[in-house]
Amino acid sequence: MNWLPLALLTALCLAGYNFFIKLAAAHLPPAVGAVVLQLVAAGLGAAWLVRLKLLGQPLAVSGKGLGLAALAGLSVGLAEILTFVVFKRGVPASVGTPVIVGGSVLLAALLGLLVLREGLTLAQAGGLGLIVAGIGLLARG
Questions:
Q1: At 135, which helix (H) or strand (E)?
Q2: Does residue 118 sit in the same domain as residue 65?
Q3: 67: buried, middle or exposed (CB in 10 Å: 19+, 13-18, 0-12)?
Q4: Are 87 and 96 in contact (CB under 8 A)?
Q5: Which residue segment(s) compose the domain that 106 sits in?
Q6: Cys bridge to 22: 32, 63, 93, 141, which one at CB 3.0-4.6 A?
Q7: What gap in Å lies between CA 109 and CA 129, rounded to an integer?
Q8: Residue 82 and residue 27 in one domain
Q9: Are 18 and 97 in contact (CB under 8 A)?
Q10: In terms of domains, do 39 and 17 share one?
Q11: Are residues 10 and 77 in the same domain?
């Protein structure tokens, strides 16, 4: 299966994530929103895991994988709280979401380059440059 449709579906899910945080931020404290979000996400993950187990899928687990997943969980948990805080301060979704998501894409790409030693084509570098320009324009207001 081509990865692009799956990546676009993931983008749709992340759009919903940011959009619904923006809406919820006006109605509850950031910590409450983050906990509810995490509980729902944990329930969904647990249901998926049970489904895989019932289908007889092998579930190879390593200590390194668990540790890295825990670090990802720490990162997303903090990102969720901070996203609620940003939107609670009245930042429009049309500005806050591109800055947060674009910034995360840029930083993840830089980590891929510097830490994982991944390559980058000229077109990809141009795309990252456009992200930087976009964040700059959005931040200027």
A1: helix 122-140
A2: no
A3: exposed
A4: yes
A5: 92-141
A6: 93
A7: 11
A8: yes
A9: yes
A10: yes
A11: yes
